[in-house]
Each structure stands twice: as structure tokens, then as C-alpha cells.
Amino acid sequence: MMLAPLQDASCLLSGAGRPEDVHTLADLLRWRAARTPAALAYREYDRESDAWRSWSWQEARERVEQLAIALAGLALPAGARVAILLPNCVDAACIDLAVLARGGVPVPLHALENPESIAWILADSGASVLFADTDGDWRRIAALGRDLPALRHVVARRIERAPALPAEGPRLRSLASWCAAAPLVTESAAAPPRDGDLAALVYTSGTTGRPKGVMLTHANVLSNVRAAFERFAPREDDVFLSFLPLSHTFERTAGFYLPIAAGSCVTFVRSVAQLGEDLRTVKPTVLVSVPRIYEKVYAGLQAAAGGGRPRAVDPLAWAIGAGWRRFERRQGRRARWTPGAALDALLHAALDRVVGRPLRERFGGRLRIAVSGGAPLAPAIARCFLGLGVDIVQGYGMTETSPVVASNAPDDNDPATVGRPLPGVEVRLGEDQELQVRGPNVMRGYWNRPAETAAAFLDGWLRTGDQAAIVDGRVRIVGRLKDILVTATGEKIAPADVEQALMGDALFEQAFVFGEGRPFLGCVVVLAEQGWRELAEHVGLDPEDPAALRAPGAIGAVMRRVQRQTAALPRHGQPRRVVLTRDAWTLANGLLTPTLKPKRNNLQARFGAVIEALYEAAGAPAG
User: Fold this and answer.
1) Which helix (H) or strand (E) holds 296?
2) What is the set of domains in the chain, with CATH numbers?
3) Residue-wise DSSP of 483-497
4) Which residues of 482-492 are buried (b: 16+ CB within 10 A; e: fewer)?
5) How do residues 381-395 score in pLDDT, each as one tens digit?
6) Buried/exposed 365-389: b ≥16 CB within 10 Å, e otherwise
7) Residue 5: what pLDDT?
8) Cα–Cα dist 406/487, whole Å
9) What residues contact 146, with CB distance under 8 A and at least 6 apart?
10) Which of 88, 249, 358, 622 is buried most deeply by CB count within 10 Å?
11) So what's the pLDDT on residue 9?
């Protein structure tokens, strides 16, 4: 089945200016600064002054021009790759735009990625320049001794240790001294980038194997910005809170370039650990996030309400139920004027102050739209947030599509799906219900991997590797072709579905389901600290004793919760064994991707011996 593309947006914004002249991302900032030069563009926390600092669009443009002149002094060839290893901040944004203005190709790197992975990407991309947060970041990479013949310059925001690196290595300078020398550099002629030139080399985090460099052009990204603008209608008075890594295409397009097109302000979070506080301080109107953030808030709500256990009087459940029905009426899926509608209005009036409003205040109190992408959002979580007045919309995409393929909209929202394809994007179903995509947002290919590029396409359509259904123009993701587990009995199950169900219990911080080629499924769950302490004490165990995680009493109590959470799944999709751990999976320990999805191969390796012993104890044949 194929959906015809909608008419592409003819311009980024209506009104004054010449958006038709915006053909590259370098043009985009110049156009925005000319349109609203004094409007607020960026805010970030200055730790030295202990205060938030603001930047106007004109100031941002001037900073980009200063950086572009400094880049000119490096005499880089057109298309040179420039790696950016920085946390989300104004410098990261301006360096990215300066590289684009000089016809270079940003290679965004995750600031929390391990040095080995970063060194591999530097080598694979052939990066000529590395922008780092500190000289220590570079020293940790250099200490690996990897051959990086293309790397000539390293610029660090802060130099923390004076001794120079070996003379034969790349030249290391501070960002301040490098920029201070910029006025002495004679501006060399640089051909402006064209829409077909590369605008980024984004390395897919991937849940398996080595990352691949996805080649995205200016035309790719701008087409997605235009389509997202039409779908979400961001405004000049909107405030985005940026915390997803700028190394990920979801944040680059939806949280970086889209606000430039809209003239919205972007505030950079101080740190992910301070996200909750910054939400209340910044009071964003738009939040671009991954499901994990919503899962944690939901788990907190459930824990405060008694862990989701049925109660005779449950204000949270009543408020969600009434709010959900109100939401469905607004979407036109229920009759608006019925006795039930009047009752729901009364319930909302009575309960919103004590249930709904406190939730919205956790997000700052004025959130207009919350976007969830990067991974599936559990239906129970979507129902909860929508029922309590947080307009959450789920979308779908991948790095290779710049990244958004489909999304719901606030006034056209079916959270059981990932919405309709964006304007200009076509989708169809191929063999095994594989979702395939065609459109101006689809990548040029994989960097230096012609065979893998060819394999990614079929008759000009990008193969997503995801199974889907298309009903009434909406896309519903069924599962990942490669991630489908096939048990020894031939039954198939998407592990993400099981993991989603498990995450509905506040006890479980993270979950990983396994069972390929085995007679039944099992799962590893990371336990929430407070929940674990309460459970351990309830069954008479010391929560600080590592052996308690293997005690039959603890295993049995957790298994009962696993069974309750997965009761609605087919029998073959219900885990029959569980492994308990208190050690969280993080980017730093290599068990999560930047969008906080589990790296399945790494988790399988980490828990391989425990999993093997589990099946042996159950008398199951070896996998």
C-alpha cells in the first residue's frame, strides 16, 4: 500500500522576507537574523556568573560569522569533515552553522560517548578538525594511539592542563585564542554550499554493530524542516528546551534547525541530571524528547498512586479516564454532547487541580506540545499524559530520513499510531510488511559503504527494517524485522512490545527481553532503588546484600509483577524467567544508544552467562 505525497510547504514562514531563497542550512540563519534580529534566539546557563545568558538572532549570526572567518584560516577544502564533540550549548550550535557556512560537513559526536567510539568515527569520517569541550576530551582520545592521519586541528573550549601534546600530533588550541586570532585572518573566497552538498555526516548509534555514517544533504534536512513546520506549526513565541544530544538527527532537525525556521527560542539544559529543575525554571512551550523521559515521570506518578495496584478510590485513574474521554471528543472520536461528557467535565473540574495540574507543573506549566520520538511510546503512558492535559504527539523516523517520516499532530492525534506521513514523504509496505520510504528527506547513502547503501534501497525506496501497518492513512509500527525474536517453538514476538509492557510498573527502570531460539522468553530488569528497598524489606531481605537479587523470595515477587504487566500479551510473549539488577544501563557503559534505547548485542554479551545459567536451571536446551 502506498500513500501519495502531500503538497510540500512552499515556504518556511509566511509574511515578510524571502524564504524561497533559503536553499541551504547556512542560508537559514541569515534569513532568520534578517527577519527578527533582536528576538531571543538562545539561552544557556553561564556557570561563571551563575546566571542564564541570552543571545539574540543577530548576536548568533555575528558569532557564526566570527567562527566562519576563523575556519577560513585553516584553509580547509570544500566538503571537509569537522567533528563536533560538545554538549548542547550555543557554541555547539554556532560552530555547526559556521562549518556549514564554509561549505564543510559537520560530524556531530555525542559528548558522553566513549573515547574508543569517538576515535573510530574520527578515523572513518576522515575529520580534519575536532572541536572538543576540554583538552582532556582530546587527551583521552589521543591516549588510545589510533592513527588519525586526516586530523590536523583540535580546538577545545577549555584548556585545563598546560603541557602541550606531542609535536607530531594535531595542533591544540583553546576556542578563545583561536577566535581571538580570527580578525588577523584574511577571509578567503569560499563557494557557498549548494542544496545537494552534504550538511552532516551523522553516525547511527545503532543497537547492534559499528555505527555507519549517514550522508544527509542540505536539501534532505531542509525538506524535513519545512514538512515538520507544516505539521507542528511552531511559533516565534515558542520556547524549546534542548537536552537530547545534538549528535542525534532528531534533535538536530526538530530541536535545532526547526526553531531557527520558526524564530523560536532554544534554551539549552544545564545537564540531563538537572532536567526536572530546568523544566520548572525555563517553562518550555515545546519539548522534543524520547519516551524514557515520559516513562520516568509516569513511573513516579504510579509509585505515588500505590504502584498501579487497584484501589477502591483511585483519583489518578479517574482523572486519566475522564481526561482521555475528553481528549477523544476533541479528536472527533466520541460524541461531544452526551450525559457522559457532562460527567467527565465535572470530574475534570474536581480532579485536575490535584492530579492534572501538578503533572503539568513538572513540565513548567505552559507546555503546548510534547513530541516523543526515537522509540515507541507505551499506550498507557500516552493515555496518561493526554488524559492529564499534556498534549503529547508520537512520531516515527530514522537517521536515514533526516529523520521524521510520520507524526501525529495536536489536532490529529491517534497515539496508537505514529501518525500520518509528513508532507512530501511517501510510504509503502514491502515484503514481510516492511515499511519503505521515499521522499526528499531520504539520505544520499552511507559514507564509504556503497554495498550497504545499495542494500538499503529497493527500486528507489529506503528499506526501514521496521514492520508496519497503514490504516486510514496512519502508520502503526508493528516491530523491528531484525529484532523479532523467534522462539524454539517458532513463535514470533517483538521484544520492544514486552519491554513497553514491563515499563508500566514503577519498579522497573529498564528492561531487556531475550529468548531467540529458546523455548520461552526471559527478561533482565533494572530495579528502581526505592521500589527495590520496599520489596526487599517486604520479603525479609537486606536490600544492600547483592545475594538478595538472586533470592527466591525476591525473584518470585518480581515475577508476579512481570506476569501482571504482560498479562495482555500472547502467552508466548510473556517472560517466564527474570534476572534482577540494580546497575543502570547508560551511554557511558555502552548499554544504551543516545536515544536511550538498549543496545541488544551489548546487553546479551553483558548478561550472557547469567542467561545461559537461567535456561540450564530450567532444563531448557542450549540456544
Assistant:
1) helix 291-304
2) 25-193+234-286 (3.40.50.980), 290-390 (no CATH), 485-617 (3.30.300.30)
3) T-EE-TTS-EE-HHH
4) ebbbebeeebe
5) 999 999 999 999 999
6) eebbbbbbbbbbbbebbbbbbbbbb
7) 31
8) 31
9) 119, 120, 122, 123
10) 249
11) 34
- Backbone torsions φ then ψ of 246, nearest 5 degrees: -70, -5
Distance CA 407, CA 250 (A): 13
Which residue has cell 544501563?
585
Cell of 4: 501519495
3-state secondary structure of 340: helix
Categorize the per-residue pLDDT at 598 as very low, low, confident or very high, splitting at 50, 70 and 90: confident
Distance CA(594)–CA(245), nearest Å, equals: 7
Chain centre distance of CA 241: 13
The backbone torsions φ and ψ at residue 368, rounded to the nearest 5 degrees and listed phi first, read -90, -35
Contact predicate 574/567, CB 8 Å: yes
Task: Mark out the alpha helices in 208-290 (DSSP H runs).
Answer: 218-232, 249-252, 258-262, 275-282
Please give the DSSP secondary-structure letter assigned to residue 94.
Answer: H
* In the block, residue with C-alpha cell 514491563: 502
CA nearest to 407, candidates 595, 283, 233, 239: 233
Q: How far apart are CA 596 and CA 587, in angstroms?
A: 8
Q: CA 520, CA 117: separation in Å to the nearest integer?
A: 35
What is the rounded distance in angstroms from the CA atom of residue 605 to the CA atom of residue 188?
A: 51
The distance from CA 238 to its chain's CA centroid, rounded to whole angstroms, is 20
Q: Dihedral of CA 535/378/563/599: which sign?
A: negative
DSSP designation for 177: H
Task: Return d(Cα 459, Cα 129) in angstroms, integer.
Answer: 37
Q: Are 425 and 228 contacting, i.e. CB atoms less than 8 angstroms apart?
A: no
**Looking at this protein, which amino acid is placed at residue 381?**
I
The more confidently predicted of residues 200 and 518 is 200
Amino acid identity of 354? V
Pairing of strands 239-242, 265-268: parallel
Residue with cell 500513500: 3
Phi, psi for 304 (deg, rounded to 5): -65, -25
Measured between alpha carbons, how far is 242 from 256 in angstroms, rounded to an integer?
8
Evaluated on CA atoms 536, 540, 543, 545, the torsion sign reads: negative
- Output the CA–CA distances (angstroms, integers) from residue 213 to 137, 193, 249, 382, 449, in the order listed: 22, 20, 12, 33, 9
Rounded to whole angstroms, the Cα distance separating 328 from 315 reads: 20
**Residues paired with residue 181 on neighbouring β-strands, in sequence order:** none
pLDDT of residue 84: 98
Pairing of strands 51-56, 105-108: unpaired
Dig out the grid coordinates for 468 from the structure: 508496519
Q: How far apart are the first and last CA of the chain?
A: 37
Which residue type is seen at 486?
V
3-class SS at 424?
coil
Contacts of 50 (CB under 8 A, 6+ apart): none
Element at 479 (helix H, strand E): strand 474-480
SS3 69: helix
pLDDT digits (tens, 9 = 90+) for 543-561: 999 999 999 999 999 999 9
